[in-house]
Amino acid sequence: MKKGTLYALLALNLLPLSAAEQDLGDWMAIGDSITHGTHEYSYRWHFQKILIDNGIAYDAVGCRKTCFYAGHDSAEYNGGVFDNEHCAQFNVQARELAGVGTFERHYHTDNAGRPTSMKRSNIHNWLGLSTELTPDAQGKRGSYAGEVFAPHTFTLMLGTNDLNMKRAPQDLLADVETLLQAALSKQPQANIYLMSVPYCKDKLPAVRIDAYNTLLQAKAEQYRATGAHVHYICINHGLQDTTGKTVGGAHPSMMMDWAHPTAQGNLLIAGNLAKGMGLPGRTAGLPRKAAADFAQHDTREMRPLSHERGYTAEIELPAAGHSLSLCDSVGQCELQLTTEGILANGAMLYATDCGTTAGRLRVVYHPGDASRKIPAGYYVWLGAQLIGEAIAPAPRSTRSGIHLQTADKKPALRAIYRDATAPWAPSR
Fold first, then answer.
1. Residue-wise over 396-417: b if at least 16 C-beta within 10 A, else e?
2. Residue 42 bridge partners (DSSP)
3. Which of 207, 282, 300, 321 would disulfide-bridge 386, Cβ 3.0–4.6 Å?
4. pLDDT tens track for 164-192
5. Which of 232, 159, 225, 226 is nearest to 193 (CA)?
6. In a 3-state reduction of DSSP, which class is residue 36?
7. How would you label 151-165 residue by residue, b for 16+ Cβ within 10 Å and e otherwise?
8. H or E stretch covering 26
9. Could you tell me whether strands 296-298 and 416-419 are parallel, antiparallel, or unpaired per DSSP bridges?
10. What is the pTM of this model?
11. Cα–Cα distance for residue pair 346/337, rounded to 1 Å
12. Cβ distance 355 to 320 under 8 Å?
């Protein structure tokens, strides 16, 4: 286990708050395959990059030390290492992790042949409240002999499998409350973050997801009214299909399959989690600077841009029907702002109606830093939340510089805040 510490942030004095005030301590992530990790890194790694960028200390703890895919047990970023401990299992239901009913799923190895079964352990075992395992389908119990933890921070995302298996939202809520009560019994002062069930592509209707998330939010408010540090966080911002075309509510481009987010979806989930926890956003290893501190701004900038040095541009939303282009001697990035979402070189970054979404949109070219495992490319922020990372340049156009135009290709009469000499992460 390694602490998530900051070794190479460029400007420590630009951190918005004391990192020590935001430390998570021992952090236990509880969930199903979305937390466990499938196809791409789990959102846990994207979330840890936020902590690393901002010098926020944490120690991931749990009974699991692998993911459901090969080759991703170790990863480095900006001086930190992926701390791959958690309490999550693919195909698991909340009642199984709560020790309610029976543990019916028996998946013992991942696609690399490594053991993945939680061996019917549940939250009461992990927290040292009981040694009795969740019974199997035949009623067999057994005793837990694994490690015991006392987390300071819990994140919990469960419900996709339960709702898909026709479990009623009220029954699912009761199971999650069993988990919540166990956490509070062990650590009454712990910070507990109940994450919404993410939207999916099909199979599970969005109306069932919404019904449960509404109940979960109300339950968090109920506990918080008693003084408990229980919070509800919606992690669906930017993933939701604004056109209503999908049964499960998620934008198709955000889904790897019916239930599992793509790398882009995981990036947004991590950002939404951090934002809901009141943490600063990713910096990609860059110093922070507010657009108001940029020296120049007008509707367009024709000066050549340096691919080697990097550069920054920012505009204010709403701006549906506009496009923002940054073009240098190597390539370009064009952001399309539509009523369906924010796209970069044609790929969806964040599903939203840009005609109603307020905020600031920043795009930078980051030359990268191989020594810190930070890849080069375009990075995009909506407010302080990173919504696009290491986007490869598209073939360059004939125009150099920064351009903001309307759908009919005319220059837009609004300000572009820019720094053509350096890349900057947004201020908090």
1. eeeebbbbbbeeeeeebeeebb
2. none
3. 282
4. 999 999 999 999 999 999 999 999 999 99
5. 232
6. helix
7. bbbbbbbbbbbbbbe
8. strand 25-31
9. antiparallel
10. 0.92
11. 10
12. yes
